[in-house]
Design a protein that fits this description.
Elements (H helix, E strand, L loop, with lengths): L5 E3 L5 E3 L9 H64 L1
Antiparallel strand pairs: 1-2
Amino acid sequence: MRDPYRAPREGGETHTTIIERRGGGGTLFLAAVVVLFGIAVAAFLLIENKRDEAARTDAITAAAKSVERGAEKVGEAAEKAGDAVSNSAR
């Protein structure tokens, strides 16, 4: 029976042909996917960090406005109390 991998040469000699299979680039594709995933995660974290900073800034601004309104009320109450004391002293 004839070996399909051995082809006869001139003079009856045979030689062996070896076929090597190489990868289809699957490793490169997987590495590219991992890198893209890392970039997406980094972008997400940066965006979330910006949102957190904006939320903190908004909270501090709201608290400062609340303190301002409270101080205005205390000032008005002090003026009214001063007027009442002045009026009663007359």
